[in-house]
Write a structure and sequence with these properties.
Helix content: 40-55%
Number of domains: 1
Strand order of the largest sheet: 1-2-3-4-7-8-9-12
Distance between the termini: 35 Å
Order of helices and strands: EHEHEHEEEHEHEHHEEEHEH
CATH superfamily: Divalent-metal-dependent TIM barrel enzymes
CATH architecture: Alpha-Beta Barrel
CATH class: Alpha Beta
Shape: globular
Number of strands: 12
Number of helices: 9
């Protein structure tokens, strides 16, 4: 089984339909482009042609939202087959999925849902991740989730669960810094401490990608909306992550209230500056 494909340290953005023409015409300086896998499961069509053209200029990352790894249902083999076909077709440098479930008894929810972090669930997730990695012939990244409930049945924190999943299955981590911050604020734990625990518990080099996004203040809690610029607290947490795991390919994730391409590229530039700052601070302490 292959390890993570080589991807130069760099900053990427999500490829979204309103930006197709402008991005392919201007070809801005980016480390990679990321898309939601399920949007490209069809064998052809205009969107697939755009993805193929983008792949001629940028490394591609596939980010899945529908495999439902933690579902009590059997692993969705038809979905996995479509993902494998897409991977074979576009040869992405990274493939990722979420630490969640989203379907049961044939009913699919338009959400990424949490579950109790138990030993039983860990055994299930390890089996599912191993099946996916075997089918794709590569290691995949698993992303920590933003959630708004906790379960009494949980036997460990999400970060402890994810670290154990990495150790047992050999997968990697897609570290969503905003998700970690949102959960910390909503559930009252220290985001820096939790991140430190995760990144010191997993083998070196396990973090294959980082996501940065905006959130909004709801009536009762922060909500992971992916609809605004990254806030300063999340930038600070990102710089902390880089000092712990080193420079990692980083995505500006923006899915709702989509801004102009220029705004996305400005956020990408902010990520470059934050990465440089973190690497400079880290070098001073060597």
């Amino acid at each position: 089984m292959s390890t993570f494909a080589s991807l130069p340290d760099g900053i990427g953005i999500g490829l979204r339909a309103p930006h197709y023409a402008q991005l392919l015409e201007s070809l801005p300086s980016l480390g990679f482009i990321e898309v939601h896998s399920e949007n490209f499961f069809h064998a052809g069509g205009a969107a697939m042609r755009v993805l193929a053209r983008a792949g001629e200029h940028y490394p591609l990352s596939l980010h899945g939202v529908g495999l439902s790894l933690a579902s009590a249902d059997e692993l969705a083999q038809a979905h996995l087959a479509k993902l494998a076909a897409l991977v074979d077709r576009v040869e992405p440098v990274l493939v990722s999925e979420h630490l969640c479930w989203g379907a049961i008894d044939g009913v699919h929810f338009n959400d990424l849902l949490p579950f109790p972090y138990t030993r039983e669930a860990l055994s299930l997730l390890c089996s599912r991740v191993e099946q996916v990695q075997e089918r794709l012939g590569r290691r995949i990244l698993i992303e920590n989730l933003s959630s708004y409930v906790r379960f009494r049945e949980s036997e460990m924190s999400e970060c402890d669960f994810l670290a154990e999943l990495v150790r047992q299955s050999g997968c990697g981590v897609l570290l969503d810094v905003n998700n970690l911050y949102v959960n910390a604020q909503n559930f009252g734990f220290d985001a820096h401490d939790e991140m430190t625990r995760l990144l010191t518990a997993i083998p070196a080099g396990s973090v294959g990608e980082i996501h940065l996004a905006g959130h909004s203040q709801g009536e009762l809690c922060l909500i992971d909306t992916h609809g605004s610029r990254v806030c300063e607290a999340v930038w600070a947490l990102y710089r902390h992550a880089i000092t712990l795991c080193g420079p990692v390919p980083t995505l500006i994730e923006w899915d709702t209230d989509l801004p102009t391409l220029e705004v996305l590229l400005d956020e990408a530039q902010s990520a470059r500056r934050a990465m440089r700052q973190a690497r400079h601070v880290d070098a001073l302490h060597v």
